[in-house]
Specification:
Length: about 100
């Protein structure tokens, strides 16, 4: 018979377990973790243990509880819109353009 402590949610979750807990895909949580895509507002920071990144289950549960709640510091909604930076110009600048205008 398994010990009752082993059936509970672990305190530290890897990316795959965090994705399963929240119902997001593994790749979404991975992008948010490694900042290749901007994470949502108030997304918790992972804890680094040696080379592994783990999320505290309590931090993820608090993040879920804050969804849709007003931000107490600013009085605005906690979910902030994601804005993309303008695309960077590629290649060599054309002759006659001032670099400050670009």
């Amino acid at each position: 018979m398994p010990h009752p402590q082993h059936t509970a949610t672990p305190l530290l979750l890897d990316i795959r377990a965090a994705a399963d807990l929240l119902g997001f895909s593994y790749s979404t949580i991975r992008h948010w973790t490694y900042r290749s895509k901007r994470p949502p507002a108030h997304w918790p920071q992972p804890v680094k243990i040696n080379t592994a990144l783990r999320y505290r289950a309590a931090d993820l549960e608090n993040w879920v509880a804050r969804i849709g709640q007003p931000d107490h510091a600013t009085g605005e909604d906690a979910a902030m819109p994601i804005t993309q930076p303008p695309p960077a110009r590629r290649g060599r600048p054309r002759q006659g353009y001032d670099l400050k205008e670009l």
